[in-house]
Amino acid sequence: MECTLCPRKCRAIRTAEGGNGFCHLPEGMLIARIAPHLWEEPPISGANGTGAIFFSGCTLRCAYCQNADISHRNAGRPLTVPELADAMRRLVDAGMHTISFITATPYVPQILQALALYRPPVPLVWNSSGYESVETLRMLEGVIDVYLPDLKHRSEAMGRLCAKAPDYFERASEGIREMVRQTGVPRYTEDGIMTRGTLIRHLILPGLTSESIALLDWIAENAPGIPVSLMRQYIPCNNVSIKGLDRPITEREYRRVRDHMLLLDLPGFLQEEASASADFVPLFCQDESFV
Question: Which among 198, 188, 191 has a CA at the least distance from the CA of 46?
Answer without folding.
Answer: 191
